[in-house]
Amino acid sequence: MHLMTLALPQEPSDGIAGWAADLVDAMGGPGAGLAIALENLFPPLPSEVILPLTGFAAGQGVISLASALFWTTLGSVVGALVLYWIGMLVGRRRMHAIWAKLPLVKTSDLDRTEQWFERHGTKAVFIGRMVPIFRSLISIPAGVERMPLPVFALLTTLGSLVWNTVLVMAGYWLGDQWDEVETYVGVLSKVVLAAVVVAIVVYVVMRFRGRDRRHHAS
Q1: What pTM, to 2 d.p., does this model score?
Q2: How many CB atoms lie within 10 A of CB 194?
Q3: Is residue 5 part of a domain?
Q4: Which of 5, 21, 49, 186 could potentially form a cystine with 12 if both were Cys, beta carbons 3.0 to 4.6 Å apart?
Q5: Phi and psi at residue 127, in whole multiples of 5°?
Q6: What residue stretches are annotated with the VTT domain (predicted)?
Q7: 121-141 burial by CB neighbour count: b if 16+ within 10 A, else e?
Q8: How many domains does the structure of the chain reveal?
Q9: Max avg pLDDT among 38-47, 76-85, 140-149, 192-201
Q10: Separation between Cα atoms, residue 17 and residue 179, nearest integer Å
Q11: Which residues of 53-74 are buried (b: 16+ CB within 10 A; e: fewer)?
Q12: Is residue 55 part of a domain?
């Protein structure tokens, strides 16, 4: 049975769903893993589409449920490792050099961030794998800070397995309504993005106010 011949509520013949369906149809579980590896490297590719679609394919017998979970989790880890190594290549010294050239930031801010990551890095990597947007980004500071690779790989595997299992099983159980998962996770993604934007705006405003106070004081 081929995935593209299934009676989906809206035929995934184009867009992200169509692309993911083609991969699973052509390669089975490894195709789903490849799609998720690319999703980690290019966050605009939505896991909330790829994973439920993979779960639906498992429910229709295109691939086994065990295969869906194994390959999507492996793909998550591979994608995260690539970003981890990018963080390692950038390195702490180069990161400080780039940071020093940015406006409205201080070296002390980066120092505090590094200290926070040293204290909470394990929790950040594990939980970050289950938070939209940050799923990919959290791997880079882990590489910059050179978190021990076995620890990073283990935490990434566990966090990814939780996230992937939830979305794959949602698609598996929802059947031909698998695409409803995107709606709910999409709302969560927008809430997270809005919170990040608000935090950045508040940070910038506070920086400008601090500069104004120092300017008037002098």
Answers
A1: 0.72
A2: 10
A3: no
A4: 21
A5: -70, -35
A6: 45-172
A7: bbebbbebbebbbbbbebbbb
A8: 1
A9: 76-85
A10: 9
A11: bbbbbbbbebbebebbbbbbbb
A12: yes
> What is d(CA 120, CA 122) in angstroms, rounded to the nearest whole number?
6
Residue pLDDT, tens place only, 86-139:
888 888 777 767 666 666 556 666 666 667 677 778 888 898 888 776 777 788
Q: Which tens digit of pLDDT belongs to each residue from 52-93?
A: 888 888 888 888 999 999 999 999 999 999 989 988 888 877
Return d(Cα 38, Cα 187) in angstroms, integer: 22
Per DSSP, 6 falls in state S
Cα(106)–Cα(207) distance, integer angstroms: 10
Q: Do residues 52 and 174 touch, judged by C-beta distance below 8 A? A: yes
Task: Give the domain range for residue 165.
Answer: 16-176
Q: Is 192 inside a domain boundary?
A: no
| Tokens standing for residue 151 | 């620890």
DSSP codes of every residue in 42-81: STTS-HHHHHHHHHHHHHTTSS-HHHHHHHHHHHHHHHHH
CB atoms within 10 A of CB 28: 18
- Model confidence at 216, pLDDT cuts 50, 70, 90, reads low
pLDDT score, position 4 = 42
* Max CA separation in the chain (angstroms): 75
Q: Is residue 205 part of a domain?
A: no
